[in-house]
Amino acid sequence: MNYLSNDQRKKAKRLILLFFAASFLITLIWNIAIVTAPIAKANGSDYLANLIYSFFAHTCHQMDSRSFHLYGFQLAVCARCFGFYVGLLSGFLIYPFVKSLDEIKTINPLWLVGFLILSSLDWGLGVMGIMENTHLSRFVTAFLLGFVCVFYVVPTLSEMTYYFIYQNRI
């Protein structure tokens, strides 16, 4: 970043804030949509509920037995996917309080690997019948993975912003 002029640095910081805010808002809307489906279904808005369920069917198996329910209707995604998305949202909420948005250094990759292994073990041990995983175990392991992903995504977005400004592409 020392290779940028003061004007370029200011522009980069504004863009990084914009990218961060957009990422947070997209994640927030995504999470709201997930819980809107059962609320809409419970209130007789079948068209809206089915539209949301259909959209999320492209990202999740939506097995009823592996999903949380609200008002007697399942969320638009399973417990594991919901945990991941809530983890992302929580990570975006916490991130500015623990790291600078324009920081390009990620946390130790072992955090990502560790939570990926933990989530994979929860899934794999359940598939092999060694251990029965639960809604809570699926949610928590995926939550941790989603949460830690933010600590790689934000620095990467920041670094890309600095690079493109340096190259005069934005």
How would you describe this structure in keywords?
single chain, 170 residues, mainly alpha, two-stranded antiparallel sheet
3D architecture notes:
- Helices cover 70% and strands 2% of the residues.
- It has one domain (6-166).
- Helix 1 (6-42) runs antiparallel to helix 3 (79-98) and helix 3 (79-98) packs across helix 5.
- The mean pLDDT is 95.
- It is flat, with a radius of gyration of 19 Å.
- It is mainly α and 170 residues long.
- It has helices at residues 6-42, 46-56, 79-98, 109-127, 135-166, and strands at residues 69-70, 73-74.
- Main sheet summary: 2 strands, antiparallel
What's the average pLDDT? 95
Q: How many β-strands, per DSSP?
A: 2
Task: Give the overall form.
Answer: flat
Structurally, the number of domains stands at 1
Measured between the Cα atoms of the first and last residue, the distance is 16 Å
**Strand order across the largest sheet:** 1-2
Q: List the total number of helices.
A: 5
Give the radius of gyration: 19 Å
SSE topology string? HHEEHHH
Strand fraction equals: under 5%
The class by helix and strand makeup works out as mainly alpha
Q: What is the share of helical residues?
A: over 70%
| Low-confidence parts | none
